[in-house]
């Protein structure tokens, strides 16, 4: 049966780790981590991904819980609809449970006029709305064989996961592998665009913190997982591209 090229896909990223890629250009990622006989979802994508994530989780034994990398509209989308506990960092609880978008977003800073105009529509379409948080998770906790790290900056309570055995980092929006002004992939990591950041200087510091882990592969909230022989150097270069005023010079 014919499937449109934008149909959601389930792909294996590493041992006991899968990603559901869906929504616009399959650019939104929900990671499924082996958790006993079922799976835990890390990041919650967009509302349009409820059915494909549910189907993928059922194929892998069933969904046990959802862990938010952070609570932005395009990362909490499925969370209210899965019928499982939802977990996040303490500094994301208020945003996760709120009807409102982030008060620090400034879409006027987006360079491309079309993107400035379309983002309000997209954010409303992506968002699944507020979700009740059942418990919190912080740096140093263990999750499905990964260690939890705090990577604040893009969002106050953003977290990521790192597995030392294979160097896999799953990092939500700690780094971008997309040009968020032009909706297209890029071939290098960048600090998220300042228009969406709580604190861009802290976001750059979190990229340096990620680099210090010496990851072999970085799986972010958007685009495909990234690996390169000089990955650490590329991460440091991305952090260095943030100038002294806290402004990301990369889109």
Distance between the termini: 38 Å
Radius of gyration using CA atoms only: 17 Å
In N-to-C order, the SSE pattern is EEEEHEEHHEEEEEEEHEH
Number of strands: 14
Shape: globular
Portion of residues within helices: 10-25%
Number of helices: 5
Please state the second-level CATH architecture: 4-Layer Sandwich
Count of discrete domains = 1
What are the segments in which pLDDT stays under 50 over at least 5 consecutive residues?
A: none
CATH topology: Metallo-beta-lactamase, Chain A
Quick one: CATH superfamily?
A: Ribonuclease Z/Hydroxyacylglutathione hydrolase-like
Q: CATH class, anyone? A: Alpha Beta
The average pLDDT score comes to: 93
User: Strand sequence of the main sheet, in spatial order?
Assistant: 1-2-3-4-5-6-7
Strand content: 25-35%
Structure overview:
The radius of gyration is 17 Å and the shape is globular. β2 (17-22) and β3 form a beta hairpin. Helix content is 20%, strand content 25%. The protein has helices at residues 50-59, 93-96, 113-126, 200-212, 231-240; strands at residues 9-14, 17-22, 28-35, 38-42, 63-67, 86-88, 135-136, 142-143, 146-150, 159-163, 168-170, 176-179, 184-190, 217-219. α4 (200-212) packs antiparallel against α5. It has a 7-stranded mixed β-sheet with strand order 1-2-3-4-5-6-7, covered by helices on one side. A 5-stranded mixed β-sheet has the order 8-9-10-11-14, with no helix packed on it. A two-stranded antiparallel sheet has the order 12-13. With 251 residues, the chain is α/β, with parallel strands linked by helices. The termini are far apart. It is built from 5 helices and 14 strands. The chain has a single domain (9-240), classed as 4-Layer Sandwich (Metallo-beta-lactamase, Chain A), CATH 3.60.15.
């Amino acid at each position: 049966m014919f499937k449109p090229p934008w149909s959601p896909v389930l792909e294996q990223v590493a041992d006991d780790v899968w990603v559901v890629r869906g929504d616009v250009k399959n650019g939104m990622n929900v990671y499924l981590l082996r958790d006993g006989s079922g799976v835990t979802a890390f990041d919650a994508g967009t509302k349009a991904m409820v059915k494909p994530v549910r189907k993928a989780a059922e194929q892998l034994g069933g969904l046990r819980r959802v862990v938010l990398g952070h609570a932005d509209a395009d990362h909490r989308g499925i969370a209210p609809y899965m019928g499982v506990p939802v977990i996040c960092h303490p500094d994301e609880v208020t945003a996760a449970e709120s009807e409102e978008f982030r008060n620090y977003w400034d879409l006027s800073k987006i360079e491309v006029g079309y993107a400035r105009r379309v983002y309000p529509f997209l954010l409303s379409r992506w968002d699944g709305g507020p979700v009740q948080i059942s418990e919190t998770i912080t740096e140093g906790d263990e999750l499905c064989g990964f260690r939890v790290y705090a990577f604040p900056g893009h969002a106050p309570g953003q977290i990521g996961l790192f597995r030392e055995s294979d160097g896999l980092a799953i990092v939500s929006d700690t780094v971008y592998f997309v040009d968020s002004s032009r909706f297209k992939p890029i071939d290098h990591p960048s600090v998220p665009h300042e228009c969406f950041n709580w604190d861009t200087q802290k976001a750059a510091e979190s990229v340096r913190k990620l680099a210090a882990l010496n990851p072999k592969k970085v799986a972010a909230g958007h685009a495909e997982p990234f690996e390169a022989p000089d990955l650490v150097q590329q991460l440091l270069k991305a952090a260095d591209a943030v100038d002294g005023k806290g402004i990301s010079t990369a889109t």
